Amino acid sequence: MYAIGSAVELALQHRLPRALIVSDSLSVLEALKRGKFNSGTDPITLRTCQLFHEATTVGTVIKCLWIPSHSYIHGNDIADILANEGRYSGDPPNIPAGPQELWPRFGKELKHSWTAEFFDICAHKAHVYATFYDGSALSNTSWFNKVDRPRRFISTILRLRSGHCLTPHYLHRMGLRDSDSCDCGVTGDIVHVFFGCSENFSASAELYAALSSHRFPLPINIYEAIFSDRLDVLDLLIEFLVKCRIAL
Q: For the chain, give me the number of helices (H) and strands (E)?
């Protein structure tokens, strides 16, 4: 596209009455023929179309001809040789780039920068999340994107992972509860809710045994289960909360 635009520009500079531009890029010629452009069209294509319009305005007749590449056409072979020589001679041309050319690299750098800053913040404000979340597996889509579970299931797991759930400890920290103690008298954090509360001893024992059967290392850290990518493990956590009538 850039080469065709440069050829049109050259024809205008020399005030040629007519010119034939030969190219082996069928896709570029078809794009110019369709003439359908939008806000996402790259600057090089827009520039080439503008030059064609200028040529029409001043009366320069320009035709384009497609020829197959690598077909032993003498003129085309010479053009390829000159093009390759031009790549390594003199200063490279200053070619403007559009979103299609810039975004892949910019998006990659933006994701890398965001990830580094995110885990830096987690190390100071959410050390549990930073400890158990696998940053190397950070995806562009959410973990629950294809999870066939109710909305309440997903929101509960998200609250458990972030620590922003309705435990006595968190509510006290937010100033919404006078004490951080559970009804049993012990600090009511997430670990206590699942494994430490005497009021749920039987259900906790069943959950511990079920998680043990899934080969979690002993003694079981409840956060290993909370951050598990296995739905059957997450189902066990939700079943425990439902059985004990705990709303988080």
A: 12, 2
